Amino acid sequence: MTTKEKKPTLTGQRIRSRKRDEKVKFEPEVFRDELVGKLNELDTLEKAARFLDTAGSSMDYRRYAEPLFDVLIAGGTLAPGGDLEGEKHWNLCVFSATTNEQIKDYALLLQRLLRRYKYLQVALETELCKVLMFLRAFTPANTEKLAKFLVQLIALGLVSAKPLESLLSDTMTKDGIALKFFVVFAQSWLADMPVKSLATALRRSALDSRIMEFFPATMRTPEKFVSHFTEAGGLEEFLKWHSSQQTSDLKNQLQTDVCECIKSDNVAGAIAKAKETMEAHDMSDVEIIGYIWQAIMEAVEWNKKTDMAADFALRHVKANYKVIAACCKTHNAQVVLLTKIQNYCYENQQFMEIFQKLALLLYKADIIGEDAVYEWYNRAHSSRGKSVFLDQMKKMVEWLKSAEEESSEEDDEDDKE
To answer: What share of the chain is helix, strand, coil (3-state, %, to 5)?
Structure first.
């Protein structure tokens, strides 16, 4: 009896995809409509805050951070260019605020939300960069509200001032849009907080030296800068800070330039650069002498061995004393110079023992006089290492006084003759 041989058959195994591998459709419009619908059912901002605080896991804020912030700020999602999309919008968004207190409440709402959903903090800063690019589409009232809202967010530490950098493109500055926004931003900040805090916020985002860039290219002059902010009103303290900032930048640049000249043994070049800066920007020797001293000392990479560094420092200062002499003509500058050298020696311990030698070197070179030494010794010295430096200078002061007495006695004898 024969049996038929079974023919081979193809069989397969059904592979079930894991839930985590299934792609979830990205539907920002659905998220927007659902969020707006639920928010409009709530009649107060406090109720909205409670809802948003608990809805994060079910509504997936991580994926839909952009439409979430669009709704909170503008009431709906923003199309490219800044126009609102969709038929329904949230009636209690930032743009609907009528008072500064309400704007603060919106910032506190976001603070509460970000405490629970920390991953939203980066998305918020990115969102603000985007929204600021749409200023042209917003009404002046909404632009002002957005500026005040940004102030509150920065003050609460929720974002940095980095979103302001998005206004520095030519498209935003050429029509004055960036400048108008920055003026409102600065006015709003200074209405509640000191200029020092504004300066700190700008400095942390590397914007403190770029304020002029908010102006249209044709208006970037110091005169127009001052006149515009003066006419805007409420920015007097900001102008004072900016002026001091500009002066500080000039001094730092002078220090860098002089240091480079010293490194290349170009003493004449260092003197010329210092005089040019003083004349061009109407600076006194009191203002720049500390920077000159720092430039001279930074031109050398000092040996860590105290004896070698101290000996070389004396030779180095002697070789470049003409630069100091050119920038130290008045009594006040001489006193400032002594105090600067004292602080420098205190900060660089290998020079602690040669302070008196440096002072004597400058005295013999006719850079500092007896009166400056006396004033520094009696009143103007710094508290840093005070006892050490005063002890060092005691012999020099006594020597100066004895020399002065001998000189006066000789003058008296000459008068008698």
So the answer is: 70, 0, 30
